[in-house]
Here is the input.
Amino acid sequence: MDPHSRAFTFVDRIVSFEPASHIVGRYSIPAEIAEFPQSLISEAIGQLAALAAMSAVDFKSRPVAGLAECVELLGTAQPGQTLELSAELASVDGEAVSYSGAAFVDGLPVVRLHHCVGPMVPMAEFADPDVVRGAFAASLQAPGLTGGFTGLPCLLLAPEIIEPGRCHRARWTVPASAPFFADHFPRRPVFPGSLLMHLKLQLAASLVSVLPSPDNRSRWTVRSVNDVKLRAFIPPGESLDLEATLKRHSADAATIFVQSRNNSRIIGGARIELTPALIP
Amino acid sequence: MSNNAITHEEAMAIFPKVAELMADALGRDVEEVKPESSLIDDLGAESIDFLDIIFRLERGFKVKIPRGKIVEEARGDLSEAEFEKAGVVTDAGLQRLKQFLNEVPAERFQSPLHVSDLPRLFTAETFCRMVIREQRAAQAQAPQTA
Here is the structure.
């Protein structure tokens, strides 16, 4: 298989699989890349669940990012480490898959997804069903498939401070071309929802950076991203307006709401929950 | 089960909780969600929002709501061919819909009505009734599974 077609694939091997129910997989993060953000760990769990869902409907349709009740960010993964992935499907049919899942590094959970829903779309519009079916079969056999991820392109925002620590905004134009578009998806390039989450976390970090610290021994840390919703496909070249707004702030918790729009249309939203963590 | 077996008062008994869940899903103030609000035309819901609302209702009311169930139940004993032709709801189908979705204001039933436009008819009360139907169905099945 052309490695470029796996430029945004984060499952190398399916270790065990019960159709429409449970799937366990693995991904070796390339050692030579600069970073592997938590948003991509979430993507890896989602991709594993997607494989189980696509198999359940005989690769006639595939899920895309839609809803996540809660993405718990518990730890990080470094280049060179291996992600142990698992997903439990609550339901799957031609319209949607509902699942939860987790990623572990060295036996410790780094990201957990709770109650996610992916709308199913016709597979043939997005990728060749036979190629996807073949990749699934190859992933079931040792040693699995080799990933083609070579690192993220520059996804740096330039936030505009509307009200310091209260409201920060940024305009982001999706690149017209990037290696991940060849894989996400081969027949219809779409900006990945996980990368939109990456940008939203970055904008939230800009807002948090001017918030008073919880105390002199702690700093604000993102614990979870809740009520994540992606309402539309984001094609290459599209411009998005991102806004992060502080909704709640106390001594032991802060909540930031982040939203993305294309003109007046809301493309996505999420609620970011932060708590104090001791500075190491 | 007919929608008519559920009274407006019964639907209103659960409306506050349904409205709260819908408002959360749609990023609206709960006061904006009225029983007669069309989810699409009045509240700006898109297809992903319907999935979101269904899953929130399932968790909020501890019921299982099969997706696509409204249209299937609305069709009742009409065959697919009797209900629609080439994507347009037939006269018989329209009559059946008006009976089943009797909470929807009459002026919203336009003719011709495309099947793809059916979700435009759905109101907040439509979802209250759907929850109650599924609650009743679960209760009816409970002795068999106990």
DSSP finds four helices and 13 strands in chain A.
